[in-house]
Every structure is written in C-alpha cells, then in structure tokens.
Amino acid sequence: MSVWEDLQGQAPVVDQLRRGAAQATPNHAWLFTGPPGSGRSNAARAFAAALLCDQQDPALRGCGECKACRTALAGSHADVTSVTTEKVTISIDEARELVRKAQDKPSTGRWRVIIVEDADRMQERSTNVLLKAIEEPPPRTIWLLCAPSPGDVLVTIRSRCRAVSLRLPPVEDVAELLIRRDGIDPEVARASARAAQSHIGIAKRLATDEGARSRRDSIVRLPLSLRNVSGAMKAAADLVALAEAEATSSFEQRDAAERQSLLASLGAPENGTLPPSLRSQVKRLEEDQVRRAKRSKNDYFDRALTDLLSFYRDVLMLQLGNADTLVNESLRRELTEYAAQGSPEQTLLRMEEINVVRRRLVSTNVAPLLAIEAMAVSLL
Questions:
Q1: Distance between CA 373 and CA 232 in Å, rounded?
Q2: Distance CA 341, CA 325 (A)
Q3: Which of 81, 161, 175, 194 is close enough to 29 for a disulfide, judged by CB 3.0 to 4.6 Å?
Q4: Rg, Å, the chain Cα set
C-alpha cells in the first residue's frame, strides 16, 4: 500500500508528485490548490512522506511501508512540521515560528518539510514573513502550501511555488475510498459521497454519523416548507439551529479527544483535580478551542448553505431536462414537483441569494440568524 492510496481520482497529481519525489533536488516550494474536499492536505502529507521515504530507488519512493512513510503520514516524523488552524487567521507569531523551524537541518531524513495547510488564512503581513524564507530557503528545506485557489495567496509567493492543482474526485471514487479505507456499507458510501458532492471529509462524516445525515436531510428539505414570511422565518431559525447542532456535535467529539490526548501526553489523570503544574497547559488548550470555534461555526454555516444550495441545483437540473443524476436522489419526487412550479431564471436568482449570504458570513460580522432570515424571505 503506497502513500498515494487515498488520493482517489487524482491520477495526474499522483504522477506529478511521484516524479517530484524521485528527483535528486525537488523544487523548494509547492502550492497545492483545489476546492474544499479535494484532498489538498492529504496530497501534501503524501508528498512529504514520499520525499522522506527510506527507499533508495527513487522510483519506489512513497512505498507506504517504511518507518519514514508511516510516521510522515501519521504526523509524527521529526522532519515534518505541519501547521493548520481553525481560527480566523494564522498569526504572524506562528509564521515566524515556521521560518525559524525551516532553518533547522533535517534530523533523520533527506529533507525538512514544512506543510502549511491553510495558507489562505494568512494575512498579508504574515505571508510577507514567509516570503524571504521561501525566496531563499535553506538547502534541505521544502515548503508545501495548501489553499483553495492560486488567487488565495500573494502573487509573490505563488510565483515561487510549483503548482499542484487538484479537482473534486468523482462520486464513485469517493465511495470506493469509503468502502475500502473505512469499511462503510457500499450503499451508504455511495449515498454519502453523492450528498457530500464528492467532499471526502464530509462524505466520511455523513457515512459514519447518522445524526449528521439526519441534520443534512432536514436542511435540504427546508425549501419545501417555505409558504409565507412566517414560514420563512421559522425555516431560517431551523437552519441556524441545525448548523449549530452539527458544529456542537463535532466540537464535543474533537475537544474531548484533544483534552484526553493532552492529559495522556502529560501523564495526568483523566478525572479529578489536576496538579497546579498542569493546569496552565490545559487552560491554553481550552482557550485555543474557544478561539477556533468562531471560524469553525462559520464553516458549518457555509456547509449548511451549500447543502441548501444542492436542493436548488437539483431543481435547476430538472427544469433544464438534465437530471439523470441528482445530488438529493431520495427527494426526486418532491424536487420534480417543486421544479414544475417555477422557471430556471427564478431558481438561479434563489441560488444567487444563497451565495450572497455565504459571502456575507465569511467577510462580515453579520449575525447569522439575521442574514439567513433575509435570505429565507427572498426564497419565497
């Protein structure tokens, strides 16, 4: 099993990265771009593993079996530094720490690899801190940056990176990955991959969490209840509540796992009063979890609106007579009835209203409930 196994539907990218890992002197900086769910971070980690693979034959690097491959994929290799954030931005202090780390020589492998999974979340001054380090990197350091699109990073950074462009994999490939890697029932895997619109992470969550599937189904059905203004206001409140419930469910699982992991690493008891010497570290973790909650909640609102958008996408396909495959296949009868009541032009206007709210939630401090209430009324 090679490090490339999880990069479903990305054959051109795998070929490009195989060639890069086989080179005696790979490019010093790479920019991985692709829509959410395309596997940018997975590709960067797989490439890091291949760069550090113990195989002496360049053509075999990325074997997935050696210690270097396994530890790099697991995030525990001494020569791989990975930064990701669920806060609003990557801070300038975090950027400076990366630059400092990049100066260190590799301890066990051929290269020191720095992975920045959220390069698009850097403010300009933070990116400028990285610029000189990427312009004039130490001879054994390789930078791997990830962002949704090339336009999400400064042109001065972009111009110094080798581009790696990923696409959303086909639904069939995502389903196959869930079946093979996670042991998901084939029917559930295919339905989840289709509902997630090929977003691998969302597909896994839908496939493994019945509550997440139920919440998504409720969101997608909201347009069917829009009859008047009062109904629209209720639908907006329901959508906000469902998005917050999904966020809370994810937070609780992740926060508890992080706390347990920290306590285990510190040798602290899981229950009872913590020794004073450990309380500050636990408090820092809790503060980080609170800070990232705002950005993560916005992400969940965006996902809820993306699910809502899939309803109108299916309606539009039906109105245009091109509905062989729907995202929400289980609602085909309801979607067909809804499509018959309007025109493609009306559907496109409704889709634009949803996209306007998505942009507002990302770029402004608008209260989600107020923005979604206004949107719901416009969908009548």
A1: 7
A2: 21
A3: 161
A4: 23
Please give the structure tokens belonging to residue 215: 């919440």
Measured from the Cβ of residue 330, the count of other Cβ atoms closer than 10 Å reads 13
CA 219/CA 188 separation, integer angstroms = 19
Top pLDDT among 88 and 59 is at 59
As a whole number of angstroms, the distance between CA 164 and CA 210 comes to 35
Helices (H) and strands (E) in the chain, counts: 15, 5
Mean pLDDT, range 210-224, rounded to an integer: 92
The string of pLDDT tens digits covering residues 149-204 is 998 888 888 899 999 999 988 999 999 999 998 999 999 999 999 999 999 889 99
The Cα diameter of the chain in Å comes to 69
Question: Hey, what amino acid is at 316?
Answer: L
Q: How far apart are CA 289 and CA 238, in angstroms?
A: 26
pTM value is 0.76
Question: Tokens in use for 26?
Answer: 């790979």
Contact 112, 54 (CB under 8 A): no
Conformation bin of residue 334: beta by default, left when phi > 0, alpha when psi is -120 to 50: alpha
> Does residue 275 have a pLDDT over 80?
no
CB 178 within 8 A of CB 192: yes
Dihedral angle, C-alpha 117, 122, 127, 130, nearest 10 °: -40
Distance CA 234, CA 158 (A): 45
Pick from 364, 362, 318: nearest CA to 343: 318
- Helical axes 171-182 vs 186-195, angle rounded to 10°: 130
CB 51 within 8 A of CB 17: no
Model pLDDT, residue 62: 94
| Residues sharing a CB contact under 8 Å with residue 124, sequence separation 6 or more, in sequence order | 154
